[in-house]
């Protein structure tokens, strides 16, 4: 589908249930043979783990972070970034960002003392930070740089893949691929041979496949497989309920898949991503993923261009960027959020809740971004009807 004109609400009669994240379908396996955009898997040393937060914990452990050390984190952050620091008995220290979510170098200079061991930088929504400046900052002070590529599985900075500038980088494959779990730890500078991963077990492998397919069914994908899997899915649900009430075992079959909570289950530190996730990483066209995400982002951008009371967080979409979501700065964000939720439009308020121990008044930009950025899906598995309907509803919500 090609959108040459902004979408209007009048021609979208149905109310599809739009997936917030990619869901597996037959179209997922469609191959596009053009050269793909660089991605974190292009970096020399790779370990496939179960989540981005697990990857961050491993990176900090490999860097020798421990009690008394300080890890610099952005004040605009996911809650999941902090527990890996606390797990190692280190101190998270938050640095400011500017109005465009770029690291505030002046504040970083002020915050950096002899106890600082690591600086973590986040490529928000897939848009890179100034890695040349950040790399030089760390090298001058003898501290490590960790790139948080949870929003940026694909993309480049000055011709090199995102993730290749840091001592380590972490990514979240489940944000970009239609899978239930998955994270990546990479390094272009250090070997990862000391990190030995094992399978999460047969229960884990089975749950990942069934949960992925069940989610596809709930959005009308792969319906031909639903009937023969009714019994296995019922068994899975029964076992999951028994585990939840503690009647079978205290160990979960799979890690939690929330992007925003503060959980950190160390039982998954030595576990590799599932065989099914590996299969999808190897089989799905990366060119299709990046091309459709960019096209859907541009459709949203064109549809919402010029509307009063809002503007894209990023003015342009550079050729080297593959977006996670479409982030929109909205003046009356609470009211618009309530309207789009009532309409059934999927929406994310990234960093809506910031770490409670952080002084939120220190960084007015982080507070503003957490309250005023509404982000909408632009992933590759949106079909034409879903994308058009979502665009139409956003027009109604923003100019009611």
Discrete helix count: 11
Q: Beta-strand percentage?
A: 5-15%
Approximate shape: globular
- Seen as an oligomer or otherwise, the chain set is single chain
Task: Write down the overall mean pLDDT.
Answer: 91
CATH topology of the largest domain: Aspartate Aminotransferase, domain 2
What percentage of residues falls in helices of 4 or more residues?
25-40%
Query: Poorly predicted ranges (pLDDT <50, ≥5 residues)?
Result: 1-13
Strand order of the largest sheet: 1-9-8-5-4-2-3
Number of domains in the coordinates?
3
What would you note in describing this structure?
The protein is of the alpha/beta class. It has 3 domains: 9-33 and 285-398, Aspartate Aminotransferase, domain 1 (Alpha-Beta Complex), CATH 3.90.1150; 40-187, 3-Layer(aba) Sandwich (Aspartate Aminotransferase, domain 2), CATH 3.40.640.10; 202-263, no CATH class. It is 32% helix and 14% strand. It is built from 11 helices and 12 strands. The chain has helices spanning 52-62, 83-87, 105-111, 131-141, 202-218, 230-244, 275-283, 286-304, 333-343, 364-372, 384-398; strands spanning 45-49, 70-74, 91-95, 116-122, 144-149, 156-157, 160-161, 168-171, 183-187, 310-312, 325-330, 373-377. Residues 1-13 have low confidence and may be disordered.
Topology:
Layout: E1 45-49, H1 52-62, E2 70-74, H2 83-87, E3 91-95, H3 105-111, E4 116-122, H4 131-141, E5 144-149, E6 156-157, E7 160-161, E8 168-171, E9 183-187, H5 202-218, H6 230-244, H7 275-283, H8 286-304, E10 310-312, E11 325-330, H9 333-343, H10 364-372, E12 373-377, H11 384-398
Parallel strand pairs: 2-3, 2-4, 4-5, 5-8
Antiparallel strand pairs: 1-9, 6-7, 8-9, 10-11, 11-12
Helix pairs in contact: 8-11, 9-11
């Amino acid at each position: 589908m090609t959108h040459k004109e902004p979408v209007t609400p009048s021609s979208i009669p149905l109310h599809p249930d739009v997936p917030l994240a990619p869901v597996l379908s037959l179209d997922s396996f469609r191959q596009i043979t053009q050269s793909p955009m660089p991605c974190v898997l292009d970096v020399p040393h790779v370990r496939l783990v179960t989540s981005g937060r697990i990857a961050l914990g491993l990176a900090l452990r490999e860097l020798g972070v421990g009690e008394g050390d300080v890890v610099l984190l952005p004040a605009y952050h996911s809650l999941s970034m902090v527990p890996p620091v606390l797990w190692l008995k280190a101190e998270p220290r938050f640095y400011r960002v500017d109005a465009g979510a770029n690291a505030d170098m002046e504040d970083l200079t002020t915050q950096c003392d002899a106890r600082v061991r690591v600086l973590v930088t986040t490529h928000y929504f897939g848009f890179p930070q100034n890695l040349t400046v950040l790399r030089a900052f760390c090298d001058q002070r003898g501290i490590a740089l960790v790139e948080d590529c949870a929003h940026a599985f694909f993309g480049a900075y000055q011709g090199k893949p995102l993730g290749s500038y840091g001592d380590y980088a972490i990514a979240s494959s489940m944000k970009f691929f239609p899978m239930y779990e998955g994270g990546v730890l990479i390094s272009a500078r250090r070997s990862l041979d000391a990190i030995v991963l094992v399978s999460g077990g047969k229960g884990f492998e089975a749950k990942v496949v069934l949960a992925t397919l069940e989610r596809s069914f709930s959005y009308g994908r792969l319906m031909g497989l639903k009937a023969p899997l009714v019994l296995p899915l019922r068994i899975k649900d029964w076992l999951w309920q028994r585990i939840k009430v503690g009647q079978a075992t205290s160990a979960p079959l799979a890690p939690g898949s929330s992007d925003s909570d503060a959980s950190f289950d160390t039982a998954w530190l030595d576990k590799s991503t599932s065989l099914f996730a590996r299969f999808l990483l190897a089989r799905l066209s990366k060119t299709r993923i990046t091309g459709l995400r960019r096209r859907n982002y541009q459709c949203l951008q064109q549809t919402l261009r010029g509307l009063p009371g809002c503007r894209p967080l990023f003015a342009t979409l550079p050729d080297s960027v593959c977006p996670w979501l479409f982030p929109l700065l909205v003046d009356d964000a609470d009211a618009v959020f309530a309207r789009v939720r009532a309409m059934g439009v999927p929406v994310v308020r990234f960093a809506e809740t910031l770490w409670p121990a952080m002084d939120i008044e220190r960084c007015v930009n982080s507070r503003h971004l957490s309250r005023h950025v509404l982000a909408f899906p632009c992933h590759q598995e949106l079909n034409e009807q879903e994308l058009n309907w979502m665009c139409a509803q956003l027009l109604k919500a923003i100019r009611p």
